[in-house]
C-alpha cells in the first residue's frame, strides 16, 4: 500500500485531489493506537497525519490551545499542565485495550470524539472543540469555527465532523477550549452494592448539587467485591463539604469512604481506558443508554456471559463477550435499541468487524442525512470508505 505523509496542509490537499481524480480510496491514520475501532477499511493508499505536528497557538489567559493533527496528545497535555490547565474531556488512551504502541494524536482524539469519565460533567471532546481545519474528499482545504467561543448559525461543521472517524474529512488542525486543573480531587467509594443499588446511588449523587466529575461502578468479580465510585474536584474546603453532604445523601447505601489519591488515579485511568479488558481475547462493546435502563440491560448481557462495568453513572456500559461468530452483535444491538440506547463494537477480530454492524445503524431518516453529508464533503467516497457503515 502506498503511504503518503504530508507535512503541510497544501501537500495534504494535493494528495487528496490526486486520489480523487484517480478514484483511489484512502485510509486515514495518525498514531495508529486505535486502528481496531470501526470496520476495516479497504483502501489502495494511506495518508498519515504524523508529519503534521506542532502546537500552533496557546493562549493560557484565553483558555485556548490549537495544534496540528499529528501532534502527540502528550505534547498538548504537557504544555497545558505547565500552565496548570487541562483538556476537560479526559481523552481515553486505547493502547492497553488494543495492545498497540505509538502515541495518541490530537487529530485522532478529535476524529473519534474520544472522551473519558469527566464527560458526564465537563462534556465530550466535541464540546471543547471550537475550531477545525480539514481537507475534504474534493481536495478542498476548509476552515470551520475559530479560536473563541461564539454562537453558531447554520451547520456547525466542527461538531458534525467530531466523531466522523476520517470519513468526511482529514483534520489537519484543531482548536480546543481548555480548563484550569482542579486544585484538589477526592474519590469516594461505596462497597458491595448490586448493579441496581449502585446505579441508584450514582444517579442520586449526579442529581445533587455536588457536581461529581466521575461516577462508575465495578461489579463484583475475580475475587473482588463490587466498588461504586464518585469523583469530585475543586478547592479543598469545597471537597470536604461536598464529601460530607454526599455521605449524608447516600447513607442508606452504606458508608462512603475516601480512597487514597494514588489508588484513585489508577482506578480512573483503568475506567477511562477500559483497561479491565486489556490483554484478553474478548470482544468489547461500548453501550450508551439511559442510566435508569442500565441495570436491566446489564443483567441481560451478564446472562449471556458478558463481563461488565458501568461509567457515567450507568449511562455507559462496557461489556466484554467472546468474539466467536458475530460477537453477540445482533443481541447487543437489539437490546441496546430496546432500551433506547445504542451500541458500538469497540474491539473484535477483523473478520467479525467486517461481518457485523460495528456502529449502531441510524434510523433511515438519519442515515439519509449521513449519506447527504458524505456526498457533499466526499462525493466519490474515497476517505476511509466503509469505516463506519458498509457502503458509506
TrEMBL record:
Boundaries of every FAD-binding PCMH-type domain copy: 1-181
Molecular function terms from GO: catalytic activity; FAD binding
Keyword Flavoprotein among UniProt keywords: yes
InterPro entries the record matches: FAD-bd_PCMH (IPR016166), FAD-bd_PCMH-like_sf (IPR036318), FAD-bd_PCMH_sub2 (IPR016169), FAD-linked_Oxase-like_C (IPR016164), Oxid_FAD_bind_N (IPR006094), Vanillyl_alc_oxidase_C-sub2 (IPR016171)
SUPFAM superfamilies, per the entry: FAD-binding/transporter-associated domain-like, FAD-linked oxidases, C-terminal domain
Keywords per UniProt: FAD, Flavoprotein
Pfam family, one: FAD_binding_4
Name this protein carries in UniProt: FAD-binding protein
Species annotation: Phreatobacter stygius
Taxonomic lineage: Bacteria, Pseudomonadati, Pseudomonadota, Alphaproteobacteria, Hyphomicrobiales
Amino acid at each position: 500500500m502506498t503511504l503518503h505523509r504530508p507535512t503541510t496542509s497544501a501537500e495534504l490537499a494535493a494528495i487528496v485531489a490526486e486520489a480523487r481524480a484517480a478514484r483511489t480510496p484512502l485510509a486515514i491514520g495518525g498514531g495508529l493506537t486505535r486502528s481496531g475501532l470501526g470496520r476495516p477499511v479497504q483502501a489502495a493508499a494511506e495518508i498519515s497525519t504524523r508529519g503534521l505536528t506542532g502546537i500552533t497557538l496557546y493562549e493560557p489567559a484565553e483558555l485556548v490551545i490549537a495544534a496540528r493533527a499529528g501532534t502527540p496528545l502528550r505534547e498538548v497535555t504537557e504544555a497545558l499542565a505547565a500552565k496548570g490547565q487541562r483538556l476537560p474531556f479526559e481523552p481515553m488512551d486505547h493502547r492497553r485495550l488494543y495492545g498497540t504502541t505509538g502515541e495518541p494524536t490530537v487529530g485522532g482524539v478529535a476524529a473519534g470524539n474520544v472522551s473519558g469519565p469527566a464527560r458526564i460533567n465537563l462534556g465530550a471532546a466535541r464540546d471543547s472543540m471550537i475550531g477545525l481545519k480539514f481537507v475534504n474528499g474534493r481536495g478542498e482545504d476548509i476552515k470551520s469555527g475559530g479560536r473563541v467561543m461564539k454562537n453558531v448559525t447554520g451547520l456547525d461543521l466542527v461538531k458534525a465532523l467530531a466523531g466522523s472517524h476520517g470519513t468526511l474529512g482529514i483534520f489537519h488542525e484543531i482548536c480546543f477550549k481548555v480548563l484550569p486543573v482542579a486544585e484538589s480531587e477526592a474519590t469516594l467509594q461505596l462497597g458491595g452494592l448490586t448493579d441496581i443499588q449502585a446505579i441508584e446511588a450514582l444517579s442520586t449523587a449526579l442529581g445533587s448539587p455536588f457536581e461529581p466529575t466521575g461516577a462508575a461502578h465495578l461489579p463484583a468479580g475475580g475475587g473482588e467485591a463490587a466498588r461504586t465510585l464518585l469523583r469530585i474536584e475543586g478547592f479543598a474546603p469545597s471537597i470536604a463539604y461536598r464529601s460530607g453532604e454526599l455521605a449524608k445523601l447516600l447513607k442508606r447505601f452504606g458508608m462512603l469512604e475516601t480512597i487514597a489519591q494514588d489508588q484513585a488515579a489508577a482506578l480512573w485511568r483503568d475506567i477511562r481506558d477500559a483497561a479491565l479488558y486489556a490483554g484478553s481475547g474478548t470482544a468489547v462493546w461500548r453501550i450508551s443508554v439511559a442510566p435508569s435502563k442500565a441495570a436491566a440491560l446489564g443483567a441481560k448481557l451478564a446472562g449471556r456471559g458478558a463481563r461488565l462495568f458501568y461509567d457515567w453513572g450507568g449511562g455507559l456500559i462496557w461489556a466484554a463477550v467472546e468474539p466467536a461468530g458475530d460477537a453477540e452483535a445482533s443481541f447487543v444491538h437489539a437490546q441496546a435499541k430496546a432500551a433506547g440506547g445504542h451500541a458500538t463494537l469497540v474491539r473484535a477480530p477483523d473478520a467479525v468487524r467486517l461481518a457485523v454492524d460495528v456502529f449502531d445503524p441510524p434510523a433511515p431518516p438519519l442515515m439519509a442525512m449521513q449519506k447527504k453529508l458524505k456526498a457533499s464533503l466526499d462525493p466519490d467516497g474515497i476517505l476511509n470508505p466503509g469505516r463506519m457503515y458498509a457502503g458509506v
